[in-house]
Amino acid sequence: MYNLVIPDMVKSIAIVGMQKNTGKTETLNWLLKQFKIANTIVGLTSIGIDGETVDQVTDTAKPEITISADTLFATSELHFHAKAFAAEILAVSEQRTALGRLVIARAKECGKILLSGPAQTVWLKKCLCELQNNGAEKTLIDGALFRLSSASPAVADALILATGAALSINLRELVKQTAHTVRMINLPCSCEKELFFDCAEGIWIITAQGNLQKLNSQTALAIDKVDRAEIALARTIFVAGGVTDRLIKQLLELKAIPAVVVRDFTKLFVSADNFARLQARGVEIGVISCSKLLAVTVNPYSPTGYVLNSEQIIAELAAHITVPIINIRNQADAAF
Amino acid sequence: MRLFKDYAFCGVNFYIEKLELATAVGRTKLRTLSVAIEVDEIVSRLETAAEFYQFSLVDQTTFNKMRHELSRCKDISATLTRLALRETLDDIELFEVKELAFLINDLQVFFQNDLKKYCPSRADAIISILDPERFNVPSFFIYDAYDSELRALRTDSRNSLKERTLLVAERIEEIEQRIRTELSDKLHCYAEMLIDSLKKIAVIDLETAKAKLAEQLHLNLPVIGTVGIELRSAFNAEVAFCLQASGRAYQPIDVELFSGVALLTGANMSGKSVLLKLIASIQLLFQAGFFVPACYAKLQPVAEVFLLCGDMQSANSGLSSYAAEMLYADSAVKFSKQNRALVLFDELARNTNPHEGRAIVAAIAEILTNSQSVVLITTHYPSVNSTVRRLRVRGIRDVDIPVGVDINNLGDYIDYAIIESDSEQCPEEALRIAELIGVSPEIIARAKQLL
């Protein structure tokens, strides 16, 4: 089994998938096994619903999450009752998820669990703290489809990205999209990030003279003409909310494009092509909080039945990615 | 009478919003708090409030620690109702019961001597049922200690999930369910006690929040009287709070009201409406068992409080403000003929012509003169009724008002004191005040010519 090195300072890890069926749950099981061998006490939760026995979207068999005794977990009332092993209840929230209150418990024996955690990042963060206060040395977050917010550095210290044939059975497309996401995750911290700490909302610029100024446009979806003229003269532009392709297209129309800063990579919704165009224009793109990518896992099986050559995927990805790339299907067979 | 929270129009919502409740049961308690009418009930409520206030003063550290502990309390009344109905609780519900039992025991240290009666009784029996292995922590699961077969089955298959056959899993589930039923049966006899404990916690939460509020807003304990209302240095806490924020002082008011009617006159901006709202809120706070914003307050309980103020227009019922006011006044008069009420009318019948308006005020004053209700009517109409008691706000101070006074600081030149008045005339200071707050000289000059 591949043994991933996890730095001591990394206490919480989010596992996010590029798509459904890219092997996120298998990645989670593999990590759980690794922690068990190392005698590390793990706390486990999810953003939204996860851990169904059958995938609700594609109706394919899904691996269940298997936890060992002493593992801490947070799941909704409904899924807590569905488990078939003894677990000690440590706390029950007053707040409710879509599936009832959130139960924090410690497994007394090993068993299979369905995970459904808080859907809001603030509550998720609180939940991670509670797991840690009850003795979890590392916490894992099972991210839901496209719910990148769980991977935000505001929530988790580090992340693992699951990719695979479910994303695309075209090898080039798979590599292109995965490499793009990795590039986003690895965006460097902006050297001007301190200037934007208090900018909670809206669009801000740093003028050529170095002054911080808020623009009139309320969202990054539509920037008015006056603001565009201001941006053209600015040194840096900071968008507190999400940055979309539409905004990037507007920026690309400018003669001079300022450096772009976003809160973290989860706020960036930009296609690989537009990102490449920005880079070709020499635009610097930075974040306020940077993310730490620990590994990329690859599932060569697609839910539609195709199997890609895993060695080839890994070799091609390795040209773009410096962190370990792991074929998750090879890890799944290791004895629990 | 309605619930305390339903008297928001009388100014009690300021106090409701300022109360810092720590628990859901406390919030429910406040939401359903009644306004008491019986003397005994009011006395008992005020005694409780006083005891908690004393507690907050004597040992602030313990008091604050106790409030902190209280915040652990969850409203599990639905679970307790199920327990009382002999239903089988699930693991989460059993955990909730255990959590409450631990909280009840942890609260014990805070209540000594006379205060003991407010604390829920110890829950050792419940803890011993839900903590068979004496771990003394408030977590819960179906412990091995509950059943030797369960222990054996679990030990055999522990740490090796694959070896646990479906048969064993089913047997374990069967035993666990039986234990849940047994535990629920054993706990059934404590359901009432736990429901009562939640009620006690709600009382503690509300009373401690009231004590904090009294300290914060400098409220005092009112006393029960047998005639009307006597207030010394009363202050509208909400207005005083706002004035304080802008660095100005509130002038406390002394006022005494008896059964029957009193007419209150005074210049515009002399605080008549604020006074009416203040009297209404003090009466309601008193009957709900709160401390009141006055140095001294002696009050007699009433069966209802009527406060007619501001714009009574009701968009829903499609009534004009005049119609809404008159119907409200009518209901207050009808009620007051049968019961002792507090009736406060701010500029009754102001929405119609002064000729008829004055007659309406005179008629209502006459009808209520000999009633047992305490009635205070503010008016700008002169010569309303020569027989009723007349009060007046002293009004603009007899000093030279410097140039530069405007609507923001005119208040500094008004004496808000209430005095007895022997004149049937109303003070005519409308033009002077209009001038002081900066109304165009053109209007003032022409109005003076027309007088």
Detailed description of the structure:
The complex is a heterodimer of chains A (336) and B (451). Chain A is globular, with a radius of gyration of 21 Å. In chain A, strand 19, helix 8 and strand 20 (325-327) form a beta-alpha-beta unit. Chain A is an alpha/beta fold and 336 residues long. In chain A, the strands form five sheets. Chain A has a nine-stranded mixed sheet with strand order 6-7-5-2-10-1-11-19-20, with helices on both faces. Chain A has a five-stranded mixed sheet with strand order 13-12-14-16-18, with no helix packed on it. In chain A, strands 3-9 form a two-stranded antiparallel ribbon. Helices cover 26% and strands 26% of the residues of chain A. The mean pLDDT of chain A is 85. With 451 residues, chain B is α/β, with parallel strands linked by helices. Chain B is built from 16 helices and ten strands. Chain B has helices at 13-18, 24-31, 39-58, 60-70, 77-84, 91-107, 124-130, 148-157, 166-188, 191-217, 237-245, 272-288, 321-338, 354-368, 430-436, 441-450; strands at 223-224, 229-234, 253-257, 260-265, 294-299, 304-308, 341-346, 374-378, 389-396, 414-420. A six-stranded mixed sheet of chain B has the order 6-7-8-4-9-10, with helices on both faces. Chain B has a four-stranded mixed sheet with strand order 1-5-2-3, covered by helices on one side. The two termini of chain B are 47 Å apart. The model of chain B has no long low-confidence stretch (mean pLDDT 89). Classes of the chains: A alpha/beta (336), B alpha/beta (451). Chain A binds chain B through residues 66, 68-69, 77, 80-81, 84-90, 92, 94, 101, 103, 105-106, 108-112, 336, and chain B through 24, 74, 90-92, 95-96, 99, 139-142, 154, 157-161, 169, 173.
